[in-house]
Specification:
It comes from Chrysemys picta bellii. One of its GO terms (cellular component) is mitochondrion. The protein is α/β, with parallel strands linked by helices and about 450 residues long. It folds into 2 domains: about 250 residues, TIM Barrel; about 80 residues, Arc Repressor Mutant, subunit A (Orthogonal Bundle), CATH 1.10.10. The protein is built from 17 helices and 15 strands. The N and C termini lie far apart (about 70 Å). Bound molecules: S-adenosylmethionine (2 copies) and iron/sulfur cluster. The site of one S-adenosylmethionine (SAM) has 16 residues, from strand 2, strand 4 and strand 5.
């Protein structure tokens, strides 16, 4: 047995060593990189029904004869559970109910989907939750119902403030009804009400377009989306234009409409944070930003698309997914196997980079070096674009900037993005091929 005199110093030594080890561990921990962020994604929910077909629209939408909302609701919740589990996503950063016309769904359906999402993953109390609303299905009490169900941002399809244009577009509301909805929405979603307008319509002139926008700018909230009309094959507007019964404005006139709108919005304090989107007072849409920043998103509902890594299957590569388009077939598939994913495509690293480039350059921030490094660890933006003569030419023309912040379009370049992308995508593919060639 050891002399009692030895025990105390040894106990003190052991205690001291424990302290030193603990201190070393703290130091060690402080030097370690921060713990990885929880895996997160945005969530898109597609409501595929509308009251009436607009003349220009070829989105995935159906005019139902008899709608079984209960079945739709239970399939949406089932698919949300399946795909969130499949992605192993722990946090949903935003939710977007789009369509179709999701303001035709009941607030109860919206609340049920949100409750399911919160049970499957963390949905922060302040996460952006947007619902698209058509003026005809968004009266004050209905909007209040959506607010109570958890929606905190509303996107209203106003499209035009000219009744003749609204008729041409096949909309089932007047300008006055659209403004009534905007008024109610601003009370319930102050600072978080967005409006969509379309320009480049048959018969529209720069001054008639600017007049309508000016009227809207007196009344709108802090977010505006402006979409140039795309003539979509298969729509009745396309047919009318093809038959020569409707005159489309010339491309130079449409470009002037866009330019005048950007300037008008800038003059009243809006930031053009993306090609078609303008916000003031920081009202940028975080959901849409996550698309443009190449983040993961899960799409549920007929025809919804998603981009995520199906981690529960042991995969590590991102997939592009699209859900079955037709609602009844989609519901059958969800009932049979928990989801209605129709097509999955594993994206190569080059394809992911192409998307990051195309989407990132739509924003005014563009692609920062840190953002790019998340996707391309071994090839910097400088490696990709720094020595290209064509890129240098675009910089000299004042259309593009590559500097210590990253790669982005200038104000002038943002309006010409499509033509810049031809050069940039070409350069990306070439640099990628050079760097990944055998022996490099
Ligand atoms: C697909 S709709 C869904 C929301 C809602 N049903 C509505 O009509 O407002 C979303 C937006 O897409 C835009 N959009 C639809 N078809 C378009 C087209 N052919 N050209 C330009 N924008 C279009 C409209 O501005 C519309 O507000
Ligand atoms: C054109 S954007 C309008 C956004 C609106 N301006 C805003 O600021 O919130 C919305 C439309 O894009 C389509 N969309 C968006 N995300 C989608 C996804 N993941 N899958 C399928 N369609 C999607 C839907 O048709 C939706 O109605
Ligand atoms: S524009 Fe909106 S309301 Fe019109 S058909 Fe398309 S989705 Fe439906």
């Amino acid at each position: 047995m050891a002399a009692p005199g030895w025990r105390r110093p040894r106990a003190r030594l052991a205690a001291a060593l424990r302290c030193v080890r603990a201190a070393r561990n703290w130091k060690h921990r402080a030097q370690r990189p921060p713990r990885a962020e929880p895996v997160q994604a945005a969530l898109y929910v597609h409501w595929p029904y509308c009251q009436k077909r607009c003349s220009y629209c070829n989105f995935n939408k159906y005019i139902p004869r008899g709608l079984d909302e209960e079945s739709m609701r239970s399939c949406l919740t089932r698919e949300a559970q399946t795909l969130i589990r499949l992605s192993r996503v722990q946090r949903i950063s935003s939710v977007f109910f789009g369509g179709g016309t999701p303001s035709l769904a009941s607030p109860f359906t919206i609340a049920t989907v949100l409750e399911t999402v919160s049970r499957c993953a963390h949905l922060a109390a302040d996460a952006e939750i947007t619902l698209e609303a058509n003026p005809t299905s968004a009266g004050a009490s209905r909007l209040a119902g959506f607010r109570a169900s958890g929606v905190n941002r509303l996107s209203i399809g106003i499209q035009s403030l000219d009744n003749a244009e609204l008729r041409l577009l096949g909309r089932n509301h007047t300008a006055a009804e659209a403004l009534g909805t905007l008024e109610e929405a601003k009370k319930l979603f102050p600072g978080r009400t967005s409006v969509d307008l379309i320009f480049g319509l048959p018969g529209q002139s720069v001054s008639s377009w600017a007049g309508g926008l000016e009227e809207l700018l007196q009344l709108c909230d802090d977010h505006v989306s402006l979409y140039q009309l795309t003539l979509e094959r298969g729509t009745s507007l396309f047919k009318q234009v093809q038959q020569g019964s409707l005159p489309m404005p010339k491309q130079e006139v449409v470009a002037e409409m866009y330019e005048s709108a950007r300037e008008m919005l800038r003059d009243v304090g809006f930031r053009q944070y993306e090609v078609s989107n303008f916000a003031r007072n920081g009202a940028l849409s975080t959901h849409n930003l996550s698309y443009w920043q190449g983040s993961q998103y899960i799409g549920i509902g007929p025809g919804a698309h998603g981009r995520f890594v199906p981690r529960a299957h042991g995969e590590s590569l991102r997939e592009a997914r699209i859900q079955t388009l037709e609602p009844d077939s989609w519901m059958k598939e969800v009932l049979a196997c928990g989801h209605g994913t129709r097509k999955r495509t594993v994206l190569s690293q080059l394809e992911v980079l192409e998307e990051v480039l195309v989407l990132g350059l739509r924003t005014d921030i563009g692609i920062t070096h840190q953002h790019w490094e998340q996707f391309a660890t071994s090839l910097s933006l400088w490696d990709m674009f720094g020595s290209s003569e064509e890129v240098k030419e675009l910089e000299d023309q004042g259309l593009l900037l590559l500097d210590n912040r990253g790669l982005r379009c200038s104000w002038k370049g943002l309006a010409l993005l499509d033509s810049l992308l031809l050069t940039l995508l070409n350069q990306l593919q070439q640099s990628w091929a050079d760097r990944t060639a055998p022996g490099t």
